Fold each of these.
Amino acid sequence: MEKLVSSWFNNKTLPQSYIFPPETRPGNHVIPRCNTIPVVDLSKALAYERTAVVQQILEASHEFGFFQVINHGVSENLVNDTMNVFKEFFELPAEDKAGIYSEDLKRPCRLYTSSPNFNSEKVHLWRDSLRHPCHPLKECIKIWPPKPTRYREIVAAYSIEAKKLGLRILELLSEGLGLGSGFFGNKLSESTVLSLNHYPPCPDPSLTLGVSKHCDPNLLTILLQGDVYGLQVLKDGEWIGVEPLHNAFVVNIGHQLEIISNNKLKSAEHRAVTNSKVARTTAAFFISPSDDCIIEPAKSLIGTDESPVYRAFEFKEFLLNYIYMEGNFEKSVEPFKLHG
Ligand code: OGA
Ligand code: NI
């Protein structure tokens, strides 16, 4: 517990063990926070503009690997309650969090700090994290934090809505790719996990990171980033900031969607920077295939003029390699690429 950034950071200078090497630290560059990451109005997908929305999502996923959605159908009250209960969790007194803190990677619901490799990593991340599965909900909910008292009730409702939203977006993507209806609505999207990030105010944001550069290893991520800036996406070798928008979700393409689409959709590298003024709390809802699900480029995309870029594999094989490669993009996908 004493390792959590939130338990010791007050009035301290940044410890050496949190200082990134010059080539990976954010530095003092001003990163453009312009609205280049596309914003998609999902309400239009219900009406005659559906084709245009499909096209917009497809292009955003191809070009950036990221987009934001507004008018997404998840109630604003539920989103506010959820964000509040996430913040309340991190603000609980130490004794209420002690039972959930664990360094045992096998614990399905756990509070930890930095990354799963705290004891072996060279530099620590300026964040605390709570992670737990959401499927099957009836069983998972029993292992979620018992406090704050409304955590289980609110987060259960939220996880149902986040999954629905994810499936809606996957359906639009599948339409755009020509994969037909329901393509992703099975084992490919069966597993769901919530990963909360809490980044306390940091004494020197130029030297450290909240999350270092990575791609999400799953299918699709629905991120609730709240109203504090910190997310950056790598596009053509430059970092661009993702502006926090009121009542929006950030959506990004995971490695598996890149593979299934045979590189038509892009899984973009991203990171989170810290700030010196306010704490930032975010919640990533990861939609993933089940462990034994077979992943391969969709058969209908492969034809005379297109050959598969990847071989078929079990999702758990990918995860094992991903963890081992500690988020290195090339090394994460290399063993699954077909050459020739
Ligand atoms: C993640 C992630 C970004 C953020 O949890 O995978 O990229 O802004 N988080 O918290
Ligand atoms: Ni991520």
Note: The radius of gyration is 19 Å.
Amino acid sequence: MISLIERLFPITRSITGDGVRETLSIINEHIPLVVHEVPSGTSVLDWTVPPEWNVGEAWIRDSSGRTVVDLVDSNLHLVSYSIPVHTNLPLDELQQHLHSLPDRPDLIPYRTSYYTETWGFCLSHRLRETLADGEYEVFIGSTLEPGSLTYAEHVVAGDSTGEIIVSSHVCHPSLANDNLSGVAVAVALAQRLASNTRGRLTTRFVFAPGTIGTITWLERNRDQIGRIQAGFTLVSLADGAPLTYKRTFDGRSVIDRAAALVLEESDVSHRFLDFYPYGYDERHYNSPGFRLPVGSFMRSVHGQTPEYHTSGDNLDLVDPAQLEEALDVLTRVIEVVDRNLTYVNQAPYGEPQLGKRGLYEAIGGKNIADLQLAMLWVLNLSDGEHDLLAIAERSDLPFDTVAEAADLLAETGLVQESVP
Ligand code: ZN
């Protein structure tokens, strides 16, 4: 995960252009991707795919010809989607195109202007304060032309048509935690799922530019989204904050209950947030027309750290242990969602006789009390209304014990999987 983040870090990404393509081609070295190109001008939900943006050089020189700001030094220096410019102008006019953070004077802010035609540079406030009066030469070698928006999918196939969706945005330039940590954890998660036993559900990974990419994906997959049973976006998983799960709009969907159960059964420091309609792409998945059960895993929360969307969000912020912890939790969450079936008790009148079906011997040598109790809970709650997560919650027994009890009961035919 660290080496992938390091490799992707220097690339100048935006919502379209070669930076996204290069990023996806590197991800494709780790997990096979199906890459989609959607032409500029295509209508997607309430939006339109914008012109494609690419940039070569971009710099500001002072009257002596000295370069004072250069895209080569940091790809945060240029406002993303800046129009091409080559002009001379006095400092007071240049100032109107500069962005800095007086309260964090050493950091370069990250700014975009996707849908308003303008240009600008971002720089540390300390550097900005050294700019002397006089003429400046500004050059932005960008292109904004008909092209396409690029996104990609990777599928880990399961036995049913039901799907779990894992979504991460791929549009930020050199920002490590917001964006690349989510990408790296998604890639590692895909690899881990592929090496596990084949699951019931298919897991679909979407790597798309934020907002417009996800909007495009939703537009193009409208007739298939009924398959989505659970999902989450991944972002900012590398910093020191507790693992944070943001609930879906519904708040009680399978993913919400699986995330709560896994985090509470673990010794991982964690917290929960209720759904709110900003943040990352979960807001599109949860919009009223879709209401897809897609939550979000993060650590520090969108916009709430001093490093957020600045040059402070760099490789120093990336803690490998935090990435690894998130990966373990997410693997487990998917495992729980995948195992979360609903059963129907086939002998619902009175408690069935477990002894004559060999169910007491089946539990020999194990944690008998728990497993026996779990069998009674599964039998009692298998009325077609309660899934295994609900049984684990209600009984306060570990999910794995409940699932094992259900497996044993299903083998004897005492419960049968409910087909919705
Ligand atoms: Zn961001």
Note: The first strand starts at residue 34 and ends at 39.
